[in-house]
Amino acid sequence: MNQKLFFFDVDGTLVDDKSKEIPQSAVTAIRSLREAGHLVYLNSGRTRCLLTHEMEQFGISCAVCGCGTEIIADGAVLLERRISRARGIELRKLLTELKLDAVLEAQEAVYFSNRPFENEALMEKLLAFVGSYAKTEVNALTDNTFLFDKFCVQTVPGGEKDPRIETLLQATPDFEGIARGRGFYEFVPKGFTKGKAVNFLMERFSIAAEDCYVFGDSMNDLTMFQSNAAHRIAMGEHDRELEAYASYIADTVRADGIAKALRALHVLER
């Protein structure tokens, strides 16, 4: 049996976006992959502190964190890219001047911009969700003591694109700005993507394209679908831009899409 390499996005792929629950079928399937000797990685926009729960639930110790800004294999850090202290201070000042709702994501904790939030209901809901997983701090734009790896901003959903986003994009040429929909934008240091992490690990472990599988649903998974992996599985509910690259469309998360896809692709026995 050839050892295979699997990458699973988390939100919208393993975790149902509506219920925020992980189907037991997905847990069982991924544990079965591990027991069969395959390499299994979470590949998420979340930083490390937000993946601990899922890693424990699936019984794995390998992850691509923060859209490729950190790669962990069996507890060892293979790659790490943190925003410098000086650049972090500049970004805090810029976000404060633009009065944007912001989330600074670090390995150890997640830091929120100052209350009152412009998009109060959305941000308070996000804060409560993140706080159930990891340490959080509010009013963090005045705290220059911590390093962080990436950041996100929330604008008013729907309607015209917020002109502050264009200002932010022009001021951050060292970042890739990803529109996630509903007025939410993710900013990742340039040169670091989920897809580059896939290629990095394929080369490191000498995994052939036909033995590599990526699972995702949203635009921040696009680079995974553009990677060297031969099997690119889009979940049943997915951004349409992924379809041009997908080799297989799975069922939805809540309809056991992960387990069904692995069986259909003859990776797991029925």
From TrEMBL:
<keyword id="KW-0378">Hydrolase</keyword>
<dbReference type="GO" id="GO:0016791">
    <property type="term" value="F:phosphatase activity"/>
</dbReference>
<dbReference type="InterPro" id="IPR006379">
    <property type="entry name" value="HAD-SF_hydro_IIB"/>
</dbReference>
<dbReference type="Pfam" id="PF08282">
    <property type="entry name" value="Hydrolase_3"/>
</dbReference>
<dbReference type="InterPro" id="IPR000150">
    <property type="entry name" value="Cof"/>
</dbReference>
<dbReference type="GO" id="GO:0005829">
    <property type="term" value="C:cytosol"/>
</dbReference>
<dbReference type="GO" id="GO:0000287">
    <property type="term" value="F:magnesium ion binding"/>
</dbReference>
<dbReference type="InterPro" id="IPR036412">
    <property type="entry name" value="HAD-like_sf"/>
</dbReference>
<dbReference type="InterPro" id="IPR023214">
    <property type="entry name" value="HAD_sf"/>
</dbReference>
<protein>
    <submittedName>
        <fullName>Cof-like hydrolase</fullName>
    </submittedName>
</protein>
